[in-house]
Amino acid sequence: MSVTVIVKASTLMAVTDIATRGPHRIGLMARWEPHTKERLARAALELYSEHGYERTTVAQIAARAGLTERTYFRHFPDKREVLFDGGHSLETTLTEAVAAAPEDASPRAALAAGLDALGAGFRGLRARARTRQAVISAQQELQERELIKLASLTRALAEALRQRGVEETRANLLAEAGCGIFRTAFVRWVGDERPETGASAEEIPLAALLREGLDTLGDALTHD
Predict the structure, then answer these.
(1) Domain that holds residue 185
(2) How far apart are CA 35 and CA 4, in angstroms?
(3) How far apart are CA 3 and CA 222, in angstroms?
(4) Among 98, 111, 125, 134, which residue carries the largest CB count within 10 Å?
(5) What does the alpha-carbon distance between residue 35 and residue 71 come to, in Å, rounded to a whole number?
């Protein structure tokens, strides 16, 4: 009888401990779960889309992700940067693909390899990209940050081309053209414009639009 009482008492104490301290302990564990940045980014995008960027707080983002504000600020300095965290990854994808092009590849071919890699990286992400673009388009502050990110991407691309031995002026021009192609193709991809193929933008992968843009630029430069 006494054993039964002890077991029940222990069980009751365990349940009480979970009820009183469990959420706190679970919260502490959640902060160290993998994909924390991804969870915060998704939560932020959802809230910005639902309530608007200005009306959303870091506390709300953290709560939606099941994390704490302190955890949020370990990964992002403010509520703006959560939308632009992929910038470095984008630069790495582009420049590594340019560097990995065959040694005898022309500058145009190396640029094409970089654009192909960018397009592949966005595969399956059109819905999310559209939501993000809508949030950015509604805020001047975010549009300015997007331009800064694009400028950084352009500089990184120019440097990658120079590392391949492309002369500086030519590398800069190719980088400007390449990032212009990326921006134009991306806007078409997340928008509703129908490409010349007649298919909807949703049915055309970004990589195909990037290639089309590169070919269009080449035609424009070689024909009157």
Answers:
(1) 86-222
(2) 44
(3) 91
(4) 98
(5) 12
Residues in the chain: 224
Domain total of the chain: 3
- How many whole angstroms separate alpha carbon 93 and alpha carbon 115? 9
Taking only the tens of pLDDT, the chain with its 224 residues reads 444 333 333 333 333 333 333 433 334 434 445 689 999 999 999 999 999 999 999 999 999 999 999 999 999 999 999 999 888 899 999 999 999 999 999 999 999 999 999 999 999 899 999 999 999 999 999 999 999 999 999 999 999 999 999 999 999 999 999 999 999 999 999 986 555 555 555 568 999 999 999 999 988 877 65
Give which of 220, 104, 94, 205 is closest to 164, Cα–Cα: 104
Q: What is the SS3 assignment for 190?
A: helix
Q: Which two tokens stand for residue 212?
A: 């089309």
Confidence (pTM): 0.77
Distance CA 18, CA 177 (A): 59
Per the CB < 8 A criterion, the answer to whether 54 and 142 are in contact is no
Task: Give the integer Cα–Cα distance in Å for 33 and 133.
Answer: 28
* Rounded alpha-carbon distances, angstroms, from residue 170 to 84, 91, 129: 29, 19, 31
